[in-house]
Amino acid sequence: MRCAASAMLIAAFASPAFAAERAPALAQVTAPHSYYWREMYVPQLTSGPSSLAWARDGEALYYSMRGRIWRQRIGSTRAEEMTAAAGYDYQPDLSPDGRTLVFSRREGDAINLVLRDLKSGRETPLTTGGAVNLDARWSPDGEKIAYVTTAQGGNFHIAIASRSGRAWAHQRWRPETKSVAGRYYYAATDHELSPAWSPDGTELLFVSNENVRHGTGRILRQKLDLSAPADIIRDEETNWKARPEFSPEGKRVSYSSYFGRQWHQLWMTTAAPGGFPMPFTYGEFDVTGARWSSDGSKIAFISNEKGGLQIDIIDVVGGKRRSLEAKQFSHARAVADLSLRIVDQEGAPTPARVQVTAGDGRDYAPADALIRADDFRDPARGIETHYFHSDGEDVISLPPGAAEIRVWRGLSSTPAVRKVDIAGKGAAIDIALDDLGREFAAWKSGDAHTHMNYGGAYRESVEGYAQQADAEALDLAFNLIVNKEQRVPDIDAFTPAPVRHGGAKAVVAQAQEFHTSIWGHLGLLGLTEHLLTPDYAGYPQTAVASLFPDNATVAKLAHEQAALVGYVHPFDPPAPDPAQEGRFSYSFPADVALGLVDYVEIVGFSDHRITESVWHRLLNCGFRLPAAGGTDAMTNYASLRGPIGLNRTYVDLGDDPPADPAAFTRRWLDGLKAGNSFATNSALLDFRIENAGPGGEIALKKGAHKLKFSARIESIAALTSLDIIVNGAVVQKIPLEKGGRSARAEGDIVIDRSGWISLRAASDEASPDVFDLYPYAVTSPIYVTVGGKPARSRSDADFFIAWIDRLIDHAANGAFNTELEREIVLKNFRKARREFERRR
Predict the structure, then answer these.
(1) 690 occurs within a structural domain
(2) Domain span at residue 99?
(3) 356 and 258 share one domain
(4) Which of 186, 474, 679, 708 has the fewest CB atoms lying closer than 10 Å?
(5) What is the pLDDT of residue 741?
(6) Is 545 left (phi over 0), alpha (psi -120 to 50) or beta?
(7) Which CATH number does the domain housing residue 419 bear?
């Protein structure tokens, strides 16, 4: 269709009042950086075992798997399902008399503790309400249960439930403290985690970050009656998963640690203060959730050595190790098999992302799948959407009756929803996907920001990572290697050579995120030699406390290796304001002024419209800055912001992209740097002005000019607006079709001064088909020069001058190793300030 020119000028960066906002999971927890504690501490739905407890005779284990509690004898391959109620069950612990299980049950957005009588099967709530309650442990006499709760204040603390006849009395164990200001990943209020009883029941082991700046805290030991201060058993950086345990005789403490390595392994130290710790297991994988058998001869733990989760048992003396394999299952309720095929337009199986929800409201997956969850709640069910990545053919066991299947394939197909009635003997269904991307074949998609392994439950391989990318119809995935606290989980994965692994279609490229909480995080794509180390700066009370290297120095080092440098997940509300109080140290505009920024994640783990508002100001000053999309997905998480490819960048590679992975990646990076891109979480865009596409330039004589445009979009989610933006203002609104999922338009716009033009598609509300704040897509600008004059904006330049003045002040008063370091940083900022002065 054709659209008449419009004289309407609307501010393009005003955030709408969203009619349907996404609500984060477990929002009642006040601890910051929820994507870490939710994955690393709070139990999640997994196909494999996630926590365990020994039977009293040492001949069987109780464990959580698939959101149920199971029992399995050592040496047997048959698992018996113990629970079958609504919700998801985790973290069992058996009473000393062997009669009662306590475990955590997730129903809706709350986690409560439940007591289950093993003889009768009767269940009784131990806690109620909307808090998160977990890590329950029976005292040796069976009269108390220590557990962690968020019931008071929202942060994690230990409470004690004491038996009083048939009732239980609950009391917070230790008073609240605030000991360290300015912790980056943790709350100002100290927390307590993972209680474990001493054999005589008079003391607790636990983890606390009282007087600790980095990590989740020390391992402490303290009298239950608090009659003496806590003793420090181990003072090292921990990260949610230490879970210390007394040995049965009380002389040793086992715990999980990544000290001096990249993965958690089992360590031991003395139960008395001052002991010297030693590793007890070894390997490049995680060993967590370890529990001693009652006779002290064995330790059972959760391992991700093979990628998914399994239970391994090791002899304390001799080190003999075996896995507890479950091959047959005795279900508490009837189940039936659903045979599922996802096919393309030719009828061939195709990889995809799948959610299967049974009539009981629970999500199900194949037994060998890695289940993952959106980090926001499905408003219709009050809990996260759980999904798995399929190769196109799967068998899922679930209760007979009604079920719903949802299928996504990145942005290449319209999401499909099918309802099926599963008989007692099972059912089979084929789901065919369409091809939204057939008219956008020259545009190749890449996720510019993912992390293959980042401290999550699983251990992802390059092969598994590529399979995730294939299921999301990604052409290219960048694994940004980065530290998680003091470890760098994927450091051994780095290679400058991109690869297609096995039969995967997606190219996998190793890259880096440079981590400083002071100047802002950088993506470094296409390093040709080595990672930049240390991988971070500005960590107080460490050897890298200095604010040097600044991001300008890091960018120059990356450019020496022919890498692209971008700012990642830039801005959340409120929009940055140089007049705001508190620290203001994000160096993004300074590095743009220095010519060191090759792209910015407009669509990423941030608010796209807030980021857009800063981007527009920089474009108005005449800088040329391409738009990119990167998810910041931690692909070995069971609960994540994702999936991989949720936020992505499309680059126009023409009709004949290189087949070689290295050549393909370099062509894609060159196209991104040239601005031949659009960033999106929902819509595919094609936008032309006088045949110039994104990144192109149009030179005009002085005066007003009528320019022809063409625009088309196809979207997996409904949109509410499709706008042409000129110099930060909407000049044309294009009507949408097919329920807001499609548009084609041609028309004219009038340009009379130098600047930039882009196309933006967005929605004013969240969509169940886009696991992001709201659907949003935008092209990199097409640049227009009128009368040979560059684009300029005095007000925007003044805004950034005030911004850089704050950076100069921060550097002038910040901590550096030497005055030379300080002077290098100040020199960079002063040079950037002069550039903005020149552009006023």
Answers:
(1) no
(2) 31-329
(3) no
(4) 708
(5) 98
(6) alpha
(7) 2.60.40.10
Q: Are residues 320 and 422 in the same domain?
A: no
> The dihedral of CA 597, 603, 605, 608: what is its sign?
positive
Distance between first and last Cα of the chain: 40
Same domain, residue pair 348 and 286? no
Distance CA 267, CA 274 (A): 15
CA distances from 775 to 607, 639, 684, 811 (A): 11, 21, 11, 38
What region does 489 belong to: left with phi over 0, alpha with psi -120 to 50, or beta? alpha
CA of residue 164 relative to chain centroid, distance: 43
**Mind listing the pLDDT tens digit for each residue in 249-308?**
999 999 999 999 999 999 999 999 999 999 999 999 999 999 999 999 999 999 999 999
From 571, 568, 578, 566, select the one nearest 611 (Cα to Cα). Answer: 571
Query: Which tokens sit at 462?
Result: 């390059």
How far, in Å, CA of 553 to CA of 561, rounded?
13
Tokens of 246: 């007394």
DSSP state of 34: H
Rounded to 5°, angle at Cα 299 from 297 and 304: 155
Residue 325 sits in the same domain as residue 347: no
Rounded distance between C-alpha atoms, residue 403 and residue 400, angstroms: 8
The CATH code of the domain that includes 301 is 2.120.10.30
Please return the burial class of 677, using the count of CB atoms within 10 Å of its CB with bins 0-12, 13-18 and 19+: buried
What's the pTM value of the predicted model, to 2 decimals?
Answer: 0.96
Residues of the chain with pLDDT under 50: 1-19
For residue 602, what are the CA distances in angstroms to 258, 605, 679?
Answer: 34, 9, 7
Local structure of 471: helix, strand or coil: helix
- State both tokens at 644: 């991989």
- Residue 664 tokens read as 């393909």
Indicate whether 268 and 395 sit together in one domain: no
Which pLDDT score is estimated for 20? 56
The alpha helices in 623-704, defined as continuous H runs, are 661-673
